[in-house]
Here is the input.
Amino acid sequence: MIAVADASPLCYLVLIGRVELLPTLFGDVLIPQSVRDELADEDAPEAVRTWIAAPPGWLEIRSVEGDTDASLQRLHTGERDAIRLAESVKADLIILDDKAARRVATERGLNVTGLLGVLGESATRGLVDLPEVVDRLRQTTFRASLRLLKSLLDRHKDID
Here is the structure.
C-alpha cells in the first residue's frame, strides 16, 4: 500500500510519539519535498524538526514536478503537492487534516483519511490505547471538536 502524507498528521504523530504507526498501517509512506521543508521549518516544534532532520528509512521524500492546476491554487503548498504526488504515484491513500484539502482530494477521486482516521485504524488493529493517544493529542495544539473526539472514542470503546 502507498500512502502520501501532509505535514499536519506527521507533525502530531511525532508529537504524541506514534509516528511509527504509519509504516505499520500503510507500508510505503511518501511525502513531497515541500512537506519535508514545512516539517523542518524553524517554526515547527523542535521534536518534529529533529525527526525530519534524520528521517526514518520508511519515509520517502519526493519532488513534485509540473504546473499546478487552478483547482489546487487555494490550498497551501504542502497540501497541493501532497495531492499532486498522490495522483502521480496512484497512492492508495492520502493523509490530510485540512478540510478544504480533504474536499479537493476527494473530488479528485483520492481515498482520504486524516490523523484521527489513522488513530482509529490503529485502535482497530490493537496498535494503540485510543483514550491514551487522544489524551496525548489533546495536550498538543491539534484542533478537533470535543464532539468529534468523543465520537471517535465511542466508536472504538469496545476494542481491546
Summary: The chain has two domains: 2-116, 117-155.
